[in-house]
Amino acid sequence: MFFTLNDPSHWAVFCFIFILHIDPNSLTMCPLRINGSPNGNVKTLGSAGTIFEAEDSDILLRIMERPRAINVSFEERPSNELLSNHFECLSPHGRRSGFNSPRSYTSFEAHAMVGEAWENMKRSIVYYRRQPVGTVAAMDHSVEELNYDQVFVRDFVPSALAFLMNGEEEVVKNFLLKTLHLQSWEKMIDQFKLGEGVMPASFKVIHNPVRNREILIADFGESAIGRVAPVDSGFWWIILLRAYTRHTGDSSLAEMPECQRGMRLILTLCLSEAFDTFPTLLCADGCCMIDRRMGVYGYPIEIQALFFMALRCALLLLKQDQEGKEFIERIVKRLHALSFHMRNYFWLDLKQLNDIYRYKTEEYSHTAVNKFNVMPDSLPDWVFDFMPTRGGYFIGNVSPARMDFRWFCLGNCVAILSSLATPEQASAIMDLIESRWDELVGEMPLKICYPALESHEWRIVTGCDPKNTRWSYHNGGSWPVLLWLLTAACIKTGRPQIARRAIELAENRLSKDHWPEYYDGKTGRYIGKQARKFQTWSISGYLVAKMMLEDPSHLGMISLEEDKQMKPLMKRSTSWTC
C-alpha cells in the first residue's frame, strides 16, 4: 500500500503517526521501557522498537473512528484485538508488549488523566525477585506508611483487571500464584490456628539480610485492626482466577493441581456444616472492605454477594474429577438455597417495606410471615423517605430480630454482576441509584454505605471510632474505587449513561486532588481527613471504569449471566414446603 497526500484519510494517518512519535520513514514506534527494581521503583528508561507495516495503516484509520455500539455476549471471550481497545504496541507476534507499553490511551476522546493514571500504576508495581507480583495500596510518602506499602488481595483486583485489559497478564498470574503459596502457610493468631484455606489480607516484600534475599511476609489478620481474618480475600482470589482464565483463554493456570487444591480449601471453609439455619455466611465485624467496627457482623451483604459469585466462578473452574464433582454437587445445592434466601429476605422495595411496616410479631409456625421476628418499630425513619416509588436494593444484613436497612454499594453491584439479583431486581437497583443520585453519588462517586451513623448510634455501633465519624471513611464516605463496580453494573443492565455521568464527576477532581483514597461529607465534597493520596485502587478503579465503558466486551471478565438452571423464584409462603 502506498501513501498519497491527496487522500484525506492518509493525512489522518500521518497526523496519528506524528502524535505517537512514529518515524514516518520506517513506521517504527518507540515506546518507553520501564525497568523496575526489585523494590518497585523505576530504575531506568529505555526504548524498544516495534514495527508497523504499511498494511496496518487501515488498522490505524479504524482506531481513529468512534466505536459503534457493541452487542455484548458475556459468555463469549472478549476480543483482545488492537482495533476496539487502546492505542497499544504490537510485538512481532501480534501480542501486546506488556510493561513496555505504559500508554493505554483509549480509542477515542482519551482523557489526559488516563496517561497519568497509567504512569502511577506502573510506579505502584511491587517486585519479588525481579518478578511483578502486585501493586502497593498507596504511594503517599508524605505520611507514615503503616500497612499501605503492602499488596492487599482485595485492593489488587481492580489493578489486575486494568492490567488484563491492557494485555499485561504476567503480574496477575504471578499474584495468583504467590497468594496461593501464602495460603499454604501455617496461620496462628496467639495460640489459635486458622483454617487451612484462609487467604492473606495482604503481603509485603522485604529484604532478609541474613539470607541476603527477598522474602514475603503475609498478614492473615494477626496484624489487622481488631485481629479479624479477611473472609473476602478467598472469594476475590477465585473471582480473579476466573477473570484471568476468561480473558486469556488459558485454563492451564486454573487446572494446576495447586490452584484446584487452593479453591477446594477455600470452599471447604465456607461450605462446612455447623449450627447455621441459613445458607448465608456468618461473619465477624471488619472481615471485608469495611475492616473496622461498623455493625456489619452477622450476614453482611458484601460477603454474601461475593460468596455467591465465588461459588459460581468455582463451578466454571473446578475440574470434573472425583474431588471436583463432590464440591460441584455441594456448590449447586448451596447456590439454590442462597439465591432463594437473598432474593427474598434481603430484598427491599416499596411493597416489601410496607409489608414489614405491617408485620405481626411473635409468630410461631412454619407459615409465619415475619420469619425473623423483626420489630416494625425498628424501621429507621430515613428509609421511608429514601425508598423511591420505583427501585429497590439488597439491605445490609438480615439476622434474627435484626435488619440493617443501610445501602451498601459493593454488595449490590456484585449482586448484579453475579446475577444474584434477578434482571428485575438489577433494574430496580439502577432505578434507585438514579432516583437517589445526590445521596449515593453526590459530588464524588460513590458512597460506600448510606446513610451515615450519627450521634448515639455512632457511639454504640462503632465504639466512638474517630476514623469512622459521620460521612467519613467507612461511615458514609465516598470511595472512587467503587466506580469500576458501578460501571460494570451499568453496562450489564444497559445503562451506560449512568456510568458515564459518574466518570465525568470523578474526572473533575480525582487527578487534581492526587487520587485520594476516599472523600468526606454528605455529598463527597471534601478529601478524606485521613485519606492517603495516590491510592492505587482509586487509580485502577478509574482506569477499569474508563476502559470498560469504551470497550464493553471487557465486562465478560467480571460478569456472569443468569443461570438458566437455577430454580425459579418461589413465593415466601412456599419456602417451607420446597
UniProtKB/TrEMBL annotation:
Which GO terms fall under biological process for this protein?
Answer: sucrose catabolic process
Please name the Gene3D superfamilies in this protein's record: 1.50.10.10
**Is Magnesium there in the keyword field?**
no
* Reaction(s) the record says it catalyses: Hydrolysis of terminal non-reducing beta-D-fructofuranoside residues in beta-D-fructofuranosides
Q: What class of enzyme is it?
A: hydrolase
Q: Name one Pfam family in it.
A: Glyco_hydro_100
Function, as annotated, reads: Invertase that cleaves sucrose into glucose and fructose.
Q: Which family does it belong to?
A: Belongs to the glycosyl hydrolase 100 family.
Record-listed E.C. numbers? 3.2.1.26
User: Annotated Gene Ontology MF terms?
Assistant: endo-alpha-N-acetylgalactosaminidase activity; sucrose alpha-glucosidase activity
List the SUPFAM superfamilies hit by this protein, alphabetically: Six-hairpin glycosidases
Q: What is the protein name for this chain?
A: Alkaline/neutral invertase
Domain of life of the native organism? Eukaryota
Keyword Hydrolase annotated: yes
Q: Which UniProt keywords apply?
A: Carbohydrate metabolism, Glycosidase, Hydrolase
